[in-house]
Amino acid sequence: MIIRCHETDAPTSAADRELYSTHTPAWMEGKPGESRAVSPATDSAILALIVAVLVLIGLNMRPVSRLLRSLPHNLISTRRRANAFDEHTANETRVAGLLLFEMCVVEGLLLFIWLGHPGTQLASATIFSTVAALCLLAAGYYAFLLAACCVVGYVFTDKTGASLWRRGLNASQIMLGLTLAVPALVSLFYPSLTSKMLILAAALYILSRIFYISKGFKIFYHNFPSLLYFILYLCTLEIIPVIAVSQIAADICVKVQ
Fold first, then answer.
1. HSE of 134 in the Cβ direction (CA atoms, 13 Å)?
2. What is the DSSP secondary-structure string of the chain?
């Protein structure tokens, strides 16, 4: 006796086995994901630093506005007689320090944007530490300029002239920091405009140094032979330090690649 069995009589059919196969699900297959590029614009620590500086400036807006009104006078005037602009308060000194700190932050950001090779994959902590090192470098450069200003003023002019030149330095650096905030933030959030913003930042730096050097020339120039000292000053304090800072900044950025 021959018994014929049909597929429907089996516990599982070929179609059922195909449905319940152990193949890897399709959603688990595909191309491996690529890590997201990290930049200062996406780093929470850098953004927090920028926001903190802006908030502190906003909370001190009244003394900031008073200080800003005196900056043009301090930048270009060589008047030796005391006047209302010579009065300074503790709040203005504190706010000047805050604005100088803001200058160091934006200069550090611009140095990283210029020399940091944005296409290179870096960890978030590495980016923050690099930007922090560049900000410290900018602070060290300002400290060098301030020390050189005090020494040159003490040696080549009187106390009043040295004070006027020192105020010119601080005024030029504060105004530089405020104006550099624009190209720094635009470069940070709009990378396509980076090259134009770096050119603008370089132009603003040169302009600030021209104002400062012009005031120094008015203070120190007495006769034609004094031009020799002025040329030596330009080479020693205006050209060589900038080259050295650029090289140090490039070395800092290369070491983290």
1. 31
2. ------GGGSSS-HHHHHHT--PPPGGG-SPPPPPPPP-GGG-HHHHHHHHHHHHHHHHTHHHHHHHHHHHHHHHH----S--GGG---HHHHHHHHHHHHHHHHHHHHHHHHHHS-TTS---HHHHHHHHHHHHHHHHHHHHHHHHHHHHHHHHHS-HHHHHHHHHHHHHHHHHHHHHHHHHHHHHHH-GGGHHHHHHHHHHHHHHHHHHHHHHHHHHH--STTHHHHHHHHIIIIIIHHHHHHHHHHHHHHHHT-
Instruction: Count the residues in the chain.
Output: 257
Q: What is the pLDDT of residues 45-101, one digit of tens each?
A: 899 999 999 999 989 888 888 888 888 888 887 776 655 445 556 677 889 999 999
Single pTM value for the model: 0.80
Looking at this protein, which amino acid is placed at residue 10?
A
Cβ burial, residue 2 (10 Å; 0-12/13-18/19+): exposed
Identity of the residue numbered 104? C
CA–CA separation, 236 vs 230, rounded Å? 10
Contact in structure between 220 and 156 (CB atoms under 8 Å): yes
**pLDDT, tens digit (0-9, with 9 covering 90-100), for 146-205:** 999 888 888 877 888 888 889 999 999 999 999 999 999 999 999 889 999 999 999 999
Q: How far is CA 161 from CA 96, 103, 251, in A?
A: 21, 25, 38
What's the CA gap between 104 and 248, in Å, rounded? Answer: 15
